[in-house]
Amino acid sequence: MLVGCSDKNASGKNKDVTVHLYTSESQDQVGEMMKEFEKENPGIKVEIFRTGTEQVIAKMEAERQSGGLVADMVWFADIDYFNSLSEEDLLEEYKSPNAEGLDESFIYNNGKYYEVRQIFNVLAYNTTQVKNAPTSWNDLYSTDYKGKAAMASPNYSGAAFLTLASIVHNDDLGWDYFKSLKENDLKFEQGNGALASKVASGEYHVVSVVDFMARNAKNEGSPVEVVWPEEGAVIIPTPVGIMKDSEVKDAAKKVLDFLLSKQGQEMFKDQGYIPVNPEVGVPENAPDTDEINIMPLDFDFLKENRESLKTGFSDIFGEQ
């Protein structure tokens, strides 16, 4: 039986409680956050399972079918899947004291899951390779970038899947946009880390990538510039939730509290993310949130067209 966040073994000594976190977030950043959390919360260990969003979901579904879901907490870029978990009453409702004053748009279904920082899909280009900076999503299929433009695969990356859905849902872009990218020999990577690295090296001239990775590359001295497309950036919800059947919910709540705390928000800022707590401010070379133009996305459209979006993508690009 758990007492607080520790238990005792046969010798009477306290043993650590382990929180299993399933996530698609950057291993380095999440690892850094959890290392600091463990330092602040002796007796709680966080075991991280990290892969792409689609693979996280596949693992969860396989475990659910076998009757042995291991995850205590989940944190990845698929708001539609979180909504489904909520509808099935699989997520713990929790009002974190550190969510007081948080914008309501960052709190889902009465506290069943939360945004803990903001991510956007934008464009980034290599300043040594590109003379005329792109300004629009349409610039990705400019012949200037033929074979030198790239994005993440929506079959792996949750951010890429939301970008796919947002663009298909946009009347001025739609599926024709992706057909144009195919004709322009668009390249794919599994995740955003490779995109940021390869645009920094000049292997790619322009990429669709999450904003914090491109911004960090620029801030670290790479010849990278971030572009907020005129049609709007794609907002990437990446909620954090606690599984209702977790046996270590008290410990998991402490993890969530830490992510929303002033200390956690400052760490996110230092990692290049835009925090959800406006008092913390934004990282170097990031716009204020009220300056960001966001491309609309109807989440009902996302839910109703999930499989047809994947099929439509594969029909154009094959298996990526």
From TrEMBL:
SUPFAM superfamilies: Periplasmic binding protein-like II (SSF53850). Gene3D superfamilies: Periplasmic binding protein-like II. GO terms for cellular component: outer membrane-bounded periplasmic space. GO terms for biological process: thiamine transport. Transmembrane segments: none annotated. Keywords: Signal. One of its GO terms (molecular function) is thiamine pyrophosphate binding. InterPro entries: Ferric-bd (IPR026045). This is ABC transporter substrate-binding protein.
